[in-house]
């Protein structure tokens, strides 16, 4: 909420089933508040009902609550309102966010929603959206991205080109060894490993991969815990 004291109790929800939401607010200090141009007072989340391409107007009017604002002298000041439109678009994937360590989260969405790019920004109402760095991995039936938990972070998906990591295969290579492989349709990747899934530095795996059939292949010693990834 963008005003002191503004909370759920300031909103009248008895008419929301018919599309009406009311709001009233008085400065709890008994004086007034000054906000910068473009400041957000509150957000409204809609449950969209309808078919793809349908539109519905959203507007603020004086029914049933009058549109009224006053200055510090309790003098009425003019208020201008601009209507908007809500459009029903294609169904969007729902993001899943899970903490995996003290400083990392996984952000995931279903793989049946291809063609999306993950973006983030530190403030919900300000700052530019930027693409989350790094490639997207496919784990089970989800696209996943691992990202830092430093500070506030808000995420969204926009339609674009999803760049994914190739699927990494691991199998036994005999006593004390494992064989790691990935498709030759994904050139330019480097295989790395470390001994902990959440901490430590990633190191390039040696030797370099060889091509076996339609896969890049690396044979590596299976000593202790070892976690692998592909990077580009």
Distance between the termini: 42 Å
Number of domains: 3
Q: Tell me roughly what share of residues is in helical segments.
A: under 10%
Helix count, DSSP H or I runs of 4 or more residues: 0
Mean model confidence by pLDDT = 85
The geometry reads as elongated
Provide the β-strand percentage band.
Answer: 35-45%
Number of strands: 20
Strand order of the largest sheet: 7-8-12-11
| Low-confidence runs of at least 5 consecutive residues | none
Order of helices and strands: EEEEEEEEEEEEEEEEEEEE
- Rg on CA atoms, Å: 26 Å
**Structural class based on helices, strands and sheet pairing:** mainly beta
Biggest sheet record: 4 strands, antiparallel
Detail the topology: elements first, then pairings.
Blueprint lengths: L10 E2 L9 E2 L31 E4 L10 E2 L5 E2 L6 E4 L8 E4 L4 E7 L5 E6 L8 E2 L5 E3 L2 E7 L5 E6 L9 E4 L4 E7 L6 E5 L8 E2 L5 E3 L2 E7 L5 E5 L1
Antiparallel strand pairs: 1-2, 3-6, 4-5, 7-8, 8-12, 9-10, 9-13, 11-12, 14-15, 15-19, 16-17, 16-20, 18-19
